[in-house]
């Protein structure tokens, strides 16, 4: 069975072509939104053959899925400070920094908007966040092991609780949250976790 377009990781010249095309696709998303993402335009911007782009990715949604996979792979690894609050504050500041970045923030808004009406984009976005949540969940698990949080705390839910208010602020106001808001989100999530809010009940 052949792989879906855009899911095979290439090497050499093919890797350079992929990098150029994904960079161009990200630029279009950030500048103009999902509705204006066109494979021929992306090929022109990336200075590669249109046929190459159509053959490799097949569709706009295939290209967006590969872009999100690339972003997940290249995201910074988690920070370990020795305490769950410090770790999750670092996570919140990383999310906040991404959303405040002119290119990345616009890109995420475009992809989130597209995901509301396109199933494959929505699935790619879910996979992206699964990777990021899994990367940071050990910080919570270590907090449980150190006795900072109750046994049975759902690590993934705590990580999501850190990010959720930051995305909500961006989507409802159009303005990226500040550092103070990021710290507050981490503190609120940790306070709730310490109170047992995220303990999985039998």
TrEMBL record:
UniProt keyword annotations, A-Z: DNA-binding, Transcription, Transcription regulation
DNA-binding region: 38-57
Any one GO MF annotation of this record: DNA-binding transcription factor activity
Signal peptide: none
Top-rank taxon, per record: Bacteria
InterPro entries in alphabetical order: Homeodomain-like_sf, HTH-type_TetR-like_transc_reg, HTH_TetR, Tet_transcr_reg_TetR-rel_C_sf, TetR_C
Domain annotation HTH tetR-type: ranges: 15-75
Pfam families listed in its UniProt record: TetR_C_11, TetR_N
PROSITE patterns: HTH_TETR_2
Record-given protein name: TetR/AcrR family transcriptional regulator
């Amino acid at each position: 069975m052949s792989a879906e377009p855009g899911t095979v990781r290439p090497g050499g010249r093919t890797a350079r072509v992929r990098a150029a095309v994904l960079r161009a696709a990200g630029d279009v998303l950030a500048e103009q939104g999902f509705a204006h993402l066109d494979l021929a335009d992306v090929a022109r911007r990336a200075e590669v053959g249109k046929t190459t782009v159509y053959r490799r990715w097949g569709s706009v949604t295939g290209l967006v899925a590969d872009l999100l996979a690339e972003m997940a792979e290249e995201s910074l690894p988690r920070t370990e400070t020795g305490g769950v609050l410090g770790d999750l504050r670092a996570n919140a500041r990383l999310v906040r920094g991404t959303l405040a970045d002119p290119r990345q923030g616009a890109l995420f808004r475009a992809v989130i908007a597209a995901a509301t009406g396109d199933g494959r984009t929505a699935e790619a976005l879910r996979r992206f966040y699964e990777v990021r949540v899994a990367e940071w969940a050990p910080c919570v698990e270590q907090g449980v092991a150190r006795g900072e949080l109750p046994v049975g705390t759902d690590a993934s839910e705590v990580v999501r609780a850190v990010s959720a208010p930051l995305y909500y602020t961006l989507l409802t106001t159009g303005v990226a949250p500040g550092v103070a808001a990021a710290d507050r989100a981490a503190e609120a999530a940790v306070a709730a976790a310490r109170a047992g809010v995220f303990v999985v009940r039998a």
